[in-house]
Design goal:
The chain has about 150 residues and is an alpha+beta fold. The chain is built from four helices and seven strands, in the order βααβββαβαββ. The two termini are about 30 Å apart. About 25% of the residues are buried. Bound molecules: coenzyme A (COA).
């Protein structure tokens, strides 16, 4: 399978929203994604993973001096467990390295075992639990990874 990573654009939003809806209890809206795509690139960067010219997954990042915050990542349901999530995470890490940003940071639902497994496999650890972080009352885990300079 050949996966092409490229910057997300407005014409991807239809496919992104399909994936978003099948992936999350509280999916982001079209307006939410448009807001992200309109951020200046020093503040917000997003990538899609394309397979056969179809959007198979995406990652949305917020850039700070001290860390890159992964604000959204998802892979199309029927394309999971094929390494696409890993490629998207590695892209975030590559951007952090290039910008000399020392940390990757994210929140994940405490019961989201697939995502927590992915992050742990790639060197993230749980910094702390945030009680009642989500609107349905579920706790979040705040996970971080130190980006090593090579
Ligand atoms: C989390 C998510 C992005 C992972 O994407 P993916 O493309 O399936 O991930 P990968 O194929 O790169 O998986 C890499 C590793 O993560 C772990 N992993 C991924 N899915 C898993 C699952 N369902 N159960 C257990 N471990 C899992 C495994 O260690 C896996 O390696 P392996 O397949 O060699 O065992 C995907 O499950 C998803 O879109 N979930 C819904 C949206 C979501 O929860 N996003 C995270 C919000 S914080």
């Amino acid at each position: 399978m050949s996966v092409n990573l490229r910057r997300a654009k407005k014409s991807d939003l239809k496919e992104i929203l399909e994936i978003e809806k099948e992936s999350f209890k509280e999916p982001w809206s079209m307006e939410g994604f448009l807001y992200e795509l309109n951020l200046p690139e020093e503040i917000g960067i997003s990538y899609v993973a394309e397979v056969d010219e179809k959007v198979a997954g995406y990652i949305f990042l917020h850039i700070f001096d001290e860390g890159i915050h992964i604000v959204n990542i998802a892979v199309r349901k029927d394309m999971r467990r094929q390494g696409i999530g890993t490629l998207l995470l590695k892209k975030a890490e590559e951007i952090a390295k290039n910008k000399h940003i020392p940390l990757l940071v994210l929140e994940v639902r405490e019961n989201n075992l697939p995502a927590i497994s992915l992050y742990k496999k790639h060197g993230f650890f749980v910094l702390r639990k945030i009680e009642g972080y989500y609107s349905d009352g579920e706790n979040a885990l705040l996970m971080v990874k130190e980006v090593k300079r090579t």
